[in-house]
Amino acid sequence: MTATTTSRLPIAMLASRGADRLLHGHPWIFRSDIATAPRVDAGLVDVRGPGGRKLGTALYSPTSEITIRRLEANPDVVVDGEWWRRTLARAIARRTPLAEHTTACRLVHGEADGAPSLVVDQYADVLVVQLLSAGLETQRDDIVAALQSLCRPTGVLARNDPSVRTREGLERTVEVLAGTVPDTVQITEHGVHYLAALRTGQKTGAFLDQRENRVLIGSLARGRALDCFSYHGSFALHLARRAAHVTAVDVSEVALARASENAALNGFSNVTPVVADVFEYLRHAKARGERFDTIVVDPPAFAKNRSSVSHAMRGYADINRLAMQLLNPGGMMFTASCSHHVHVPEFLEILAHAAEESGRDIALRTITLQPLDHPILLTVPETGYLKGAVLEAMS
Length: 395
Hints:
The protein has 11 helices and 20 strands. With 395 residues, it is of the alpha/beta class. It folds into 3 domains: 67 residues, PUA domain (Archaeosine Trna-guanine Transglycosylase, Chain: A, domain 4); 105 residues, RNA methyltransferase domain (HRMD) like (Transcription Regulator spoIIAA); 187 residues, Rossmann fold (3-Layer(aba) Sandwich), CATH 3.40.50.150.
């Protein structure tokens, strides 16, 4: 869809609270903050505040609780194919420094790159996109055309399978939008190689947001190492470069089969996969008197929503306490939370509580956030979710 002039767009009138939200730098408008909604299908709308003040052009999703997502604040700028090309070109240019270290990165991180509900990840010469709102779906042709012009990919895959699409009234699908897309693509990341499963892997094929954290803990690895929630072994691969041996634990046998394949791809013979529930594995390891010199704890998001935060905090505290108890004196540990609803102060509180319960003297060495290709927009806290910490057992 291409808009030729803003004057032809349907008009969405906002209540004062909605208008204030835009003026304070957040692009989302909830249904309850709309004074008068246009009776049209999903698409682009002209957004106006009290008194008819023009507030720009936005994506409109009539069935979504987040009904409006502003794209362009200037009411005189038309959102069309050329607008998308300019916006995506700016986002892609920000990632230029990463090309020296990796063949995979996030090119567009939604709201943080001025493209609400759009994700674009690059895996070598293939692009994987996610169109996560009904309004954005109407812009598909312009987005794909802009990406093809800017990146010249051999293929574009839509991983439109997240559950959020259901709330937008959209189908959940995985489909090729352009060119050809293989099931897996080999990626190089700071000298380590792995296979990204584009159609079936978590997220869009791999956990690109942990790239720099893998390098960080890999540089500190030594002795016996343990990778908890290993999945396809991305952390384990970096640990294996310096550690004498790495135990990679995950509940999924299929995921660990890929981890073993990735280890072989790098010529690592010191990675042992173990299919087990991580909580149970750590408890049994403690009972056996096992100790490790390097540990990674990278669990899935325990807090999916605000109501689950207290339960999630107990889960994070338990898993970190168990891991801390297995560290040798002087041992290093990297731990992370990818739950948006668990913020940095709460995360540090969890770690302090876990350290107290572990009976160990645990020092905080480094706090990490998201890498360059996953920017956090200060006025849009929802763009930030990942936080991590490097810890050291002092005794």
